[in-house]
Design a protein that fits this description.
- There is one protein chain.
- The chain is α/β, with parallel strands linked by helices and 549 residues long.
- The protein has 2 domains: 346 residues, TIM Barrel; 83 residues, Immunoglobulin-like.
- It has 15 helices and 19 strands.
- The strands form 4 sheets. Strands 9-8-7-3-2-1-11-10 form an 8-stranded parallel β-sheet.
- Helix 6 runs parallel beside helix 7 and helix 11 packs parallel to helix 14.
- The longest helix is centred in the middle third of the chain and has 16 residues.
- It is globular.
- The two termini are 22 Å apart.
- The N terminus is likely disordered.
- The protein binds beta-D-glucopyranose.
- Beta-D-glucopyranose binds next to loops.
């Protein structure tokens, strides 16, 4: 697959498993109902400790910077500090030190396209046309008859232009009106952001998850976007001019240069799925833009063998030479995959298979907090909602709050997350579905995640090996092999077989196929059994991991 897989000293992030923490919801230490940094620190051993830990390698923290929280931290009002709800810079440094002591890397979220309207850069910019920061944001005069500078619409609904009576011009915001877009054409904006990057890297963070990068450049002549017939909302326009400009790639190349002074740092990009060339275009030539780019196809695809086979046989190989795939099934913007992959049949069985796929497919996996215990999407009433995007489209779109409910640690009244009323309600099933209960049960989803993480950690084939899809087998099943040379020079081969149907299946691989040992099954206990390619049996919604002879 990727050339990097064959390099002698692969970078840490290729074999790492990342765990996304939504700081609002992970652990509250001061009992105000909101998670915080001391809370996260108190749970680090759960993620990577000597005993009984899940066993991940890196955490990605969704934004923890000071923010008015209109977009729950994606509206930053100061890039070099910590929001008081979450703690202080000292709390962050303590967290970082403890994480590193445990061997856990820490990734910050970095919001580049926009700031909060409360950021001093924006206050300064809007104060006067003569401000030195005026050009740091996208300001424009209206057209005649009080019309906006262009027809552009915002990702979160409504127009992207808002009239500012103080500045006496319109400003651009691609998301909420409280999130004015920076003008990335302005060299001092880029310089200021690179200073932010250095600020955190100098403190020891291990890299950044870069937010909404394909929005960075705009056509500053502000031409109207053409309409798409028959569609509504954000998709009713072809977003030709308000995003996806060459400047986004230029900026990522510049950023790659900046971080070259920190050889271990990683950049992970988030771009819209429909950006031209796809998000993978942000790998650039493979070594000049980002090291990792999220691939959200598995977040959009149905639960069926066909789409997973397509992912493996066409999409992963299309990543440019030198790039490295990512495997993502859930995050803070989408409904959790346990519910998204279908509510009929046995959702838990599918979640178990999803865990096997996430941790054995080629690429760097990203777990979303709570998926290891099978946290479901919260069933929230309108009055529980906090996210403006979720509120705006409620009840027609699932929204984002349901996937952001507090972590379910134990069976106590607030699930061990807080003793106060949590900022979003916990689901009623938290008394059964929680870390404490599942960690005590060797057959739980949590125990399966932990076992797979341990197997992956010890297996060069699973963590960074080459792969190929095995085309033989029933159409409801997906089979693939991973392979790598071990330190002692032997070749390790692993096989993954998944039955996506709700019927048992039995089949044979061509004669000459290797025998092996089943190391894990998503339906059985940890007990191992032999793998006979002449008589493969997979139960309904079952996946198996096999070490081939
Ligand atoms: C983040 C969202 C955020 C948006 C605007 C994203 O893609 O993941 O949570 O609302 O960017 O910053």
């Amino acid at each position: 697959m990727c050339a990097a897989s064959r390099s002698l000293h692969p970078p840490w992030w290729q074999s790492a498993v990342f765990y996304q923490i939504y700081p609002w919801s992970f652990q509250d230490s001061d009992n105000d109902g909101i998670g915080d940094l001391r809370g996260i620190r108190s749970r680090l051993k759960y993620l990577r400790g000597a005993q009984h830990s899940l066993g991940v390698d890196a955490i990605w923290l969704s934004p923890i910077y000071p923010s008015p929280m209109h977009d729950f931290g994606y509206d930053v009002s100061d890039y070099v500090n910590i929001d008081a709800r979450f703690g202080t810079l000292k709390d962050f440094e303590d967290l970082l030190e403890e994480a590193h002591r445990l061997g856990l890397r820490v990734i910050m979220d970095l919001v580049l396209n926009h700031t909060s309207d409360q950021h001093e850069w924006f206050r300064d910019s809007r104060a006067s046309r003569l401000s030195t920061k005026r050009n740091w944001y996208c300001w424009a005069d209206g057209k005649s008859c009080g019309r906006r500078p262009s027809n552009w619409n915002a990702r979160f609904g409504g127009p992207s232009w808002t009239w500012d009576p103080e500045a006496r011009q319109y400003y651009l915001h691609s998301f909420l009106k409280e999130q004015p877009d920076l003008n990335w054409e302005e060299p001092s904006v880029r310089a200021a952001m690179w200073d932010v990057v250095r600020f955190w890297l100098d403190r020891g963070v291990d890299g950044f998850r870069l937010d909404a990068i394909n929005w960075l450049g705009k056509d500053t002549r502000w031409p109207n976007n053409p309409f798409r017939l028959g569609l509504r909302g954000y998709t009713r326009q072809h977003h030709l001019y308000d995003r996806d400009q060459a400047l986004a790639h230029d900026s990522m190349r510049e950023l790659r240069q900046v971080i070259s002074a920190y050889p271990d740092a990683v950049l992970i990009g988030e771009a819209a799925a429909d950006t031209p060339g796809g998000p993978a275009s942000f790998y650039g030539k493979g070594d000049d833009e980002l090291q990792l780019v999220f691939d959200f196809r598995l977040m959009k695809s149905p639960w069926c063998a066909k789409s997973f086979r397509l992912f493996l046989s066409q999409h992963v190989p299309s990543i440019p030479q030198g790039g490295w795939p990512t495997i993502v099934m859930s995050n803070h913007d989408q409904p959790r995959h346990i519910d998204r992959y279908g509510t009929g049949g046995d959702a838990e069985a599918r979640a178990r298979v999803a865990a096997l796929l996430l941790l054995t497919m080629p690429g760097t996996p990203f777990l979303y907090y709570g998926e290891e215990v099978g946290m479901r999407n919260g069933k929230l009433r309108y009055r529980d909602l906090r996210d403006p995007y979720t509120k705006r489209f409620w009840p027609f779109r699932p929204g984002r709050d349901p996937a952001r409910t507090p972590m379910q640690w134990d069976a106590s009244v607030h699930a061990g997350f807080t003793t106060h009323r949590p900022w979003l309600p916990l689901p009623p099933d938290s008394s059964q579905r929680n870390v404490e209960t599942e960690a005590a049960d060797p057959r739980s989803l949590w125990s399966l995640y932990r076992r797979l993480l341990a197997l992956r950690r010890m297996s060069p084939a699973l963590s960074r090996g080459d792969y190929h899809v095995i085309e033989e087998g029933p159409c409801d099943c997906v089979l693939y092999e991973r392979e790598a040379r071990t330190k002692t020079g032997t070749v390790e081969r692993m096989l993954v077989a998944v039955n996506f149907s709700q019927r048992p299946c039995e089949f044979a691989l061509p004669s000459g196929s290797s025998q092996g040992l089943v190391l894990a099954s998503t339906t059985a206990d940890a007990a191992t059994s032999t793998w006979d390619p002449a008589r493969i049996r997979l139960g309904p919604d079952e996946g198996q991991l096999v070490r081939l002879d």
